[in-house]
Structure formats: structure tokens, C-alpha cells
Amino acid sequence: MPHLTLEYSPGLAARADIPALCRALHSAICEAGIFPLGGIRVRAYCADHAIVGDGLPENDFAALGFAVASGRSPEALRAAGDLIFAAARQALAEPLATPHFTLSFEIREINPDLSWKQNSIHARLAGQTKGAAHG
Ligand SMILES: O=C(O)C/C(=C\C=C(/O)C(=O)O)C(=O)O
């Protein structure tokens, strides 16, 4: 499944709208046009403890990991990654404008021989119009 996992330091919740960031990331993944809507998962976890950079308490991080099925071209993944990272940068513009924040993003391909899945959402979406599927 296209899994977008956001990890962030505890201080970031006061400096950024995490639910809005999740929505922006979801929209960017949809907009990329190469991922099945029913397979998309976006979730965010706050680290219980974090030491960032030089260890100043005002330092924060957000780390985005995106796990996708293998088989797409590097060019297609690169273009999708550019879109998703741009959405993250826009949503996190305020902390990025300070000297106390670091943002990272990585795409990882899932080994098809070592992963399993069953998803009932695809069939439901196939029965809807495209517009309705996006809510
Ligand atoms: O294969 C994967 O796990 C990733 C994927 C799609 C997954 C689903 O559609 C699913 O789990 O139902 C992908 O397109 O990258």
C-alpha cells in the first residue's frame, strides 16, 4: 500500500497543524496520479522523545517515509516524490523558516516477495464514480 508515515518531534505539534499536513500529503499523493486511491494510507506519529541536531530544546524534526509497490519507473516516483515533498514544505513553511527545524522524505519500494495484502476498499471504490471516490 502506498504508506505515508510521518514521524515528528513533540514540539512540532505546537508549531504546525499536523492534521492539515496529513490532508495536504494525502491530496499530493492523489494528485500524483500513480497510486491507487484505495491503497493510500497517511498517518502521523509523535515521537515520545527526540534529540534533534545540536540538541536545542526548540529544535524539531519531521521525517516522512513513503512505502510503495515496486514496478514504477524511477522517473514516475521522482515526480511523485517532488509533488509530495513540495506539499510537505508548503504545510511546514513556518517551522522551515526558522533555524530550528529539519524535514526529510524518503520513498522505499516494498519487496513483492516479502509482503502480503488484502484490501476491501478497492472494490467499494470501483463501484463509485471517480468524483465521489475523492469525497
Ligand atoms: O503494493 C503495495 O503495498 C503498495 C501499493 C498499493 C497497495 C494497495 O492498493 C493495497 O494495499 O490495497 C502501491 O500502489 O504502491
UniProtKB/TrEMBL annotation:
Q: What would you give as a GO molecular function for this chain, any one?
A: 5-carboxymethyl-2-hydroxymuconate delta-isomerase activity
Q: Would the keyword Coiled coil be found if you checked this record's keyword annotation? A: no
| Entries under InterPro entries matching the protein | 5-COMe_2-OHmuconate_Isoase, Tautomerase/MIF_sf
Its keywords, alphabetically, are:
Isomerase
The reply to whether Glycoprotein figures as a keyword in the UniProt entry is no
Question: Which superkingdom heads the taxonomic lineage of this protein's source?
Answer: Bacteria
The residue ranges crossing the membrane are none
UniProt name for this protein: 5-carboxymethyl-2-hydroxymuconate isomerase
